[in-house]
Amino acid sequence: METQIDKLIRLVEDLLDVSKIQAGKLGYRQERVDLDALLHEVADTMQQIEATHTIVVRGATSCSLVGDKDRLGQVFTNLLSNAIPGLGHGLVYCRGNRQTP
């Protein structure tokens, strides 16, 4: 299992290679991702960083998808990181719901 440092190294290496991004050749891993597990993992990591807030995951999607786990995790991390400064101190809720089209 990759550590958080390995994930960050991979993301930084990809982001620093501007020519790949501009050429549309940035690689993505295709792996099965348990969305609930990923949300809990991101919330746990963010809780360690943001000690002034309590991050709570509510609900469940009960689904998995095929995608790049590290990049999806980074999206959720960015969403939480952007939400927290506007909240002051307190609770941050991440809620997962499964909706069908």
UniProtKB/TrEMBL annotation:
The keyword Transferase applies. It comes from the Bacteria. One of its GO terms (biological process) is phosphorelay signal transduction system. It catalyses: ATP + protein L-histidine = ADP + protein N-phospho-L-histidine. InterPro entries: HATPase_C_sf, Sensor_HK_Regulatory. Its EC number is 2.7.13.3. GO terms for molecular function: protein histidine kinase activity. The keyword Transferase applies. Keywords: Kinase, Transferase, Two-component regulatory system. Gene3D superfamilies: Histidine kinase-like ATPase, C-terminal domain (3.30.565.10). It is an enzyme of class 2 (transferase). PANTHER family: HISTIDINE KINASE 1, TWO-COMPONENT HISTIDINE KINASE. This is histidine kinase.
